[in-house]
């Protein structure tokens, strides 16, 4: 069952009513917790997200039996009151906020209290209580005040974590990093039938393709139960969005094509989207503004971090026109990709993005993007062999966004991307059909956490692309995440990789480092091991923190 927006708003607001700092905000009615009978209601962990200068949204979902086949997590049909605390210290001796939220059956017994009135640019600790059960402790951080001097920021971004393709070891390493934030760019869970990519794992309890709310809840529960992912969520606030696999591979809008998969009927696919969107909201630290309205969900939004950075989270799925020519795979003969009326973002989101780029006072403009913006010709030479699910299939939109950045003098535009299951560093030109067109931005594509299995250092296709396209700087096909450090002079990208994911315990290393200098669009290599040498562990990385090599 998926709910109307009015119903969701009613239960969602009840679940986020307590937001007053220094006050025990108690609802008019308390709903006692059941006896847990040996089950731990916080088996899916805790999380925080959407940081602002004065607050964050907290998250947990009560699920003592996360993989119960009905998708209800072993919870009764009635609501349960969940208490939460926010403190300056991990021992909760200096509590600064207390409140209650109602975990209702309608939202899978998840809660999303929005805490406000906190100090800016500060770490806090939080926890939940349901009856006698106490959650793990999470740590979160508020954003610097808008426009305030901000010397440095560190964050990681990740994507694509199909559970059965491999272990989430990368998240274990991420949770130990010195970060302010994590950005997840989509494919947090997969709708597809499970494969067996983990040594010694049996996934028989979840088979078939997810199509309804119970199915999608089970997929999130399987993912959320992973200890490394829980550790990363508990360590930092997250910004989250979706790509395609949260619903169905390569879906877009309500258009005919791959999105209709097993249905072939628009109304049924919209019902499926509504179920997928509700499950997404139930399992992520999102605000009540992101409550879905049936098959619609507001996911494009903007965050500012002092005077240093502005992160704009895009939605490249809900508002796009159908993929040109194919279901999104590479095709050689597709003039439709250049049509002026084809859009990846939709007119309203595109205008909102362009206006934000023009008006922002921040040093760095960051686009949280799902699909590759750089041009990728998979068979160099005529004719072009380009995919149509990414920006290569929506050339007019790409030229509009990058052209506006160039025309309006946006000096430090960086695009961070997921989806590809590979690491890439690339320059973005105002018009990719003209190699003399000016470089206006850099794109860093992060590999998958687990999707695709162990991987390799570089694929044959990627090697050919690097040899023939001057704008593509680096590629790697291992699993991992991307670590970013930025100040007012330099943006630094470290591609963090693990050598295997089919079994736990993989070490982490930095495969390559690329930088962007303030005022100089595009990226340059700062450090990379010799082609046949193993990646040097990050603790041994000899690159000075602010050394900038001469541009090649």
Key words describing this protein structure:
552 residues; alpha+beta; Immunoglobulin-like; Purple Acid Phosphatase, chain A, domain 2; 2 domains; 14-stranded mixed beta sheet; six-stranded mixed beta sheet; 8 helices; 24 strands; 25% strand; globular; PhoD-like_sf; Alkaline phosphatase D family protein; PhoD-like_MPP; PhoD_N
Short description:
With 552 residues, this protein is α+β, with helices and mostly antiparallel strands.
Describe the model:
The chain is of the alpha+beta class. Helix 2 (169-174) links the parallel strand 11 and strand 12 (181-184). The protein has 2 domains: 20-142, Purple acid phosphatase-like, N-terminal (Immunoglobulin-like, Sandwich), CATH 2.60.40.380; 153-527, 4-Layer Sandwich (Purple Acid Phosphatase, chain A, domain 2), CATH 3.60.21.70. The protein is 16% helix and 25% strand. Strands 11, 12, 13, 14, 15, 16, 17, 18, 19, 20, 21, 22, 23 and 24 form a 14-stranded mixed beta sheet that branches. Helix 3 runs parallel beside helix 5 and helix 6 (347-359) packs parallel to helix 7 (395-407).
